[in-house]
Design brief:
With 253 residues, the protein is an alpha+beta fold. It has one domain: Phosphatase 2c, domain 1 (4-Layer Sandwich), CATH 3.60.40.10. The chain is built from six helices and ten strands, in the order αβββααββββββαααβ.
C-alpha cells in the first residue's frame, strides 16, 4: 500500500540516517589545531542515537570542545542531537562565552519542549579553550566530569562541579576554569561507558574507567580511546548494549 514502509525500506532509511549522523560528527580536531592530538570512539546502541561531540573553531586562537548526551535513544534522540549541534555551530550567539552559549541552548530546548509538550533535555560539557595558553573555561550541564591525566605521574582526577541538565528549567550556568598544560591529557566521555552493564548486572563504573585510562598513559590518544571501548565491550560480554557510548581523548602538546 502507498505510504506504508516495508521492513527493507525502513532498514534502508535507518542506514541512511546513520550515515548522515556519522557525517555530522568530526573525525578529529581541526588540522589548524596544532597544540592538540585527539582520539575518538563512538558506539550507538541503535542505528542512530543521541551522543554527540564537536570541535568548533571560534577564531585562530580559540576552539570550543563539546560533548553531550541527549536523553533517550534512537531516531528521536538523533533528531534532537542534530538540532543541538546546528545551534552550537551557528553564529547567532557569542560562542566564545560558555555561559551565554549554554544558557541560550537551554532556553531553546525549553521553548522547543513547550511547543511539543514534552521535555527535551540533554547533558552537555562545553569548553572554550585558548589554544596558545591552554586556558579553558568550561560549563558542565549535568554531564560526567572530564578526567584530567597528568601523564608524567599517571594521576587522574575529575574536574568537579555540575549544573542541571539542559531543557528542564531556566538557570544561569557557572563556569569552571582550568589551564591544560603541555603533557596533560583530557578525557571526555558519556555515561554509557561507566553505566555499561554485564550479564551479572554489574556496571563498568568510574574506577574501572580510571584504571584503563591510567594504564594507557604512554599510548597515543586514538589507541587509548580504542582500548577503553574494547575494555567496555569485553566487560559487557553477551549482555546487550543499553546506551550510546562515546569517548574523546585529547592530549595537549
Amino acid at each position: 500500500m502507498p505510504g506504508i514502509m516495508t521492513p527493507t525500506e525502513h532498514e534502508m532509511d535507518l542506514a541512511l540516517a546513520a550515515e548522515l549522523q556519522a557525517a555530522l560528527l568530526p573525525k578529529g580536531c581541526p588540522e589548524t589545531c596544532e597544540h592538540q592530538r585527539t582520539g575518538i570512539r563512538n558506539r550507538m546502541c541503535r542505528s542512530v542515537g543521541g551522543d554527540f561531540y564537536d570541535f568548533i573553531e571560534l577564531n585562530p586562537d580559540q576552539m570550543a570542545i563539546v560533548i553531550g548526551d541527549v536523553v533517550g535513544h534512537g531516531v528521536r534522540a538523533a533528531l534532537l542531537m542534530a538540532q543541538i549541534m546546528g545551534f552550537l555551530r551557528s553564529d547567532t550567539q557569542d560562542r566564545s562565552r560558555p555561559a551565554n552559549m549554554v544558557g541560550a541552548l537551554n532556553e531553546m530546548l525549553i521553548a522547543l519542549g513547550d511547543e511539543t509538550d514534552t521535555i527535551l533535555s540533554c547533558s552537555l560539557l562545553y569548553t572554550v579553550l585558548d589554544l596558545p595558553t591552554g586556558m579553558g573555561f568550561m560549563i558542565n550541564a549535568g554531564h560526567p566530569p572530564p578526567i584530567v591525566c597528568e601523564r608524567d605521574r599517571c594521576a587522574s582526577h575529575g574536574l568537579g562541579g555540575s549544573d542541571l541538565v539542559l531543557g528542564v528549567e531556566p538557570y544561569e550556568p557557572h563556569e569552571i576554569c582550568h589551564t591544560f598544560l603541555p603533557g596533560e591529557r583530557l578525557v571526555l566521555y558519556t555515561d554509557g561507558l561507566v553505566d555499561a552493564t554485564n550479564e551479572a548486572e554489574k556496571t563498568f563504573g568510574d574506577q574501572r574507567l580510571l584504571e584503563v585510562i591510567s594504564a594507557c598513559s604512554d599510548a597515543d590518544p586514538q589507541p587509548t580511546a580504542d582500548t577503553v571501548m574494547d575494555a567496555v565491550a569485553a566487560f559487557r560480554g553477551d549482555a546487550p548494549q543499553r546506551d550510546d557510548e562515546t569517548i574523546v581523548v585529547i592530549d595537549r602538546c
